[in-house]
């Protein structure tokens, strides 16, 4: 059993794409529950793997920025991560420190020899893997500004990019934002608005309100009603395409449920101290 549903199954979730471009996906997810939709949102933000600089070795740094500050800036540089799935997590790799199976090396050696200001961009990072490079919006784009140098200053560094997810550190998140809304008319009364004179004047409806009808205010309130339609707007930073983020997130959720199903069907194979950490129970 592969867990798939027939194409014509009316109980299956439905997806309708309203807009798609390079870094933005606007879609409607319907015929599902709030818990499932919110799980998708959380996984897109925090559990889709990407590549990001994790280690920085400084051989020379006479710029005005401290090593720690530059290392932090380098970690936040978005990297093309279409091949992230092919890399191993460091914890799963058998190498002593890093290797081509779990990481990508970057080098940068810049020295300002001319009067004036020398701006160093992320596009100047030299990668050991042609598939993992800094994100550039166009051929003319030079990327993120890393540091500005004056005559006589030098920067020589060696960086290691590794695979990770944003629940470990935000630098691995493929999304800059994930918009999420349901029940734009507040028919379910899940939101309690604070207002001075008029709710409608002080809390204007979103564009998603055009997708649904407002309930008759005089009609009896249905306490058992639940949301079934959810409006998503996924904005990425360029490391992955937005549709790729959504597809990867759904696969991650499926894998989680698959692991749960296996554990429930084979309880004898479960580790007795799976909820322990160094002998201490998790709180």
Q: Give the SSE string.
A: EEHEHEEEEEEHEHEE
Tell me the major beta sheet.
Answer: 4 strands, antiparallel
Backbone structural class: alpha+beta
**Order of strands in the sheet with most strands:** 1-2-10-9
What amount of the residues lies in strands? 25-35%
- What is the number of strand segments? 12
Morphology:
globular
Unreliably modeled segments: 1-5
- Average pLDDT confidence is 90
First and last CA, distance: 36 Å
- Rg from Cα: 24 Å
Number of helices: 4
- Name the helicity range: 10-25%
Structure write-up:
The protein has 283 residues and is an alpha+beta fold. It is 18% helix and 28% strand. It has helices spanning 34-46, 67-75, 199-202, 242-265, and strands spanning 14-20, 24-30, 50-61, 103-111, 117-121, 126-127, 145-150, 154-164, 175-182, 229-236, 276-277, 280-281. The strands form four sheets. It has a four-stranded antiparallel beta sheet with strand order 1-2-10-9, covered by helices on one side. Strands 3-8-4-6 form a four-stranded antiparallel beta sheet, with helices on one face. It has a two-stranded antiparallel sheet with strand order 5-7. Helix 1 (34-46) packs across helix 4. The two termini are 36 Å apart. Residues 1-5 have low confidence and may be disordered.
